[in-house]
Amino acid sequence: MKLSDFSYNLPKTAIAKYPVSPRDKAKLLVLNRETQTIESKSFSNVIDYMEEGDVIVVNETRVIQARLYGKKEKTNAKIEVFLLRELNPQEQIWDVIVDPARKVRIGNKIYFHDDLWCEVIDNTTSRGRTVRFNQPSVFKAIEKIGFTPLPPYIKREAEDSDKENYQTVYAKKDGSVAAPTAGLHFTNKMLEKAKKKGIEILPVVLHIGLGTFRPVEVEDLTKHRMDSEYFHVSKETAEKVNKAITTGKNVFAVGTSTVRALESSVTAEGFLRQNQGWTDKFIFPPYDFKIVDKLITNFHTPESTLMMLVAAFADMDLVVKAYKKALKEGYRFLSYGDAMLVL
Q1: For residue 210, what pLDDT is reported?
Q2: Which residues of 255-271 are buried (b: 16+ CB within 10 A; e: fewer)?
Q3: Is 13:315 a contact under the CB 8 Å cutoff?
Q4: 15, 288, 318, 321: which has the fewest Cβ within 10 Å?
């Protein structure tokens, strides 16, 4: 398949700027691959499609308050510093993006609030820099002074409410600069309902980077390269997923980041293995999924790697049909938008 196969017209009015409240009142478009049917539900109905013994795998990464505003030493020039990833926890070294980049050179110090500052120690790209912070507890410091890194297509400034709204209720591990948005619809009440039904909630971690928003620039998809992202699949999660597989139960993956973590950790026999490291796995049609049986996801931007993964899972024609139906029926798209369940 080619890049242009994933192009469609997404009106600006269809892009959600705020989430629905409560979370589980988002719309849910249910795609059945076997019957090739599509029906509209509420996200609160999603547990109805699960049975005792099934497992729900979630990405428990936590979005950090990655957007910082500081001033350059001596000149007091205003500098935006966007945190990308922690490179060395012992020395507090991070990869960042700075703006305006022309004002930021190696050796410069940028000062923030609460005695927090960083020094530029290397250039990585035209806007990229490597910096060293002066405090060991950077994650704790940025929770107070940083701003939620809303996606670029949400055309507004981050608000206090985004600190909670742009975070899943099960987020635990600091590290993402974008939310695993399919999980934003779950409430604690829904998760309890699933557990009472005999369904296990199993965590993985994949820290989502800015690459999730980077456009694919080659028509031949085999030539596209994904950014590497850190992930972790625990021994316990692997064992419980494998039990579901061997007993004929379903593995529900919440979001494309969860799928990438799972499908990056497959044994030669087609089971899940304990694993951690960095993955640049790019899933696009055709692809033979080894672990995931059912997928919960949002509606994604045209020509995005996220949409390509969904098309690989659900069948391209069915996805195109679903997206057309969703747009016609007023579904809300992208991070704060509505959801799809692919059976």
Answers
A1: 86
A2: bbbbbbbbbbbeeeeeb
A3: no
A4: 288
113 pLDDT higher than 90: no
pTM of the shown model: 0.93
Domain boundary among 118, 145, 172: 145
CATH of the domain at 122: 2.40.10.240
Paired tokens of 186: 């779950």
- Bridge partners of residue 201, in order along the sequence: 56
CATH number of the domain enclosing 14 = 3.40.1780.10
Please indicate, yes or no, whether residues 56 and 168 belong to a single structural domain of this protein: yes
* Pair 91, 116 in one domain: yes
Query: Mind spelling out the 3-state secondary structure of 158-183?
Result: CCCCHHHHCCCCCCCEEEECCCCHHH
Number of domains in the chain: 2
Q: Which amino acid is at 44?
A: S
pLDDT digits (tens, 9 = 90+) for 294-308: 999 999 999 999 999
**Closest to 214 measured CA to CA, from 228, 233, 199, 198:** 228
Is 171 within a domain?
yes
Average pLDDT on 314-328 reads: 97
For the cut 80, the answer to whether the pLDDT of residue 315 exceeds it is yes
Give tens-digit pLDDT for 21-61: 999 999 999 999 999 999 999 999 999 999 999 999 999 99
Domain enclosing residue 15, as ranges: 3-63+162-342
Residue 114 dihedral angles phi and psi, to the nearest 5°: 55, 40
β-strands 37-42, 339-342 pairing = unpaired
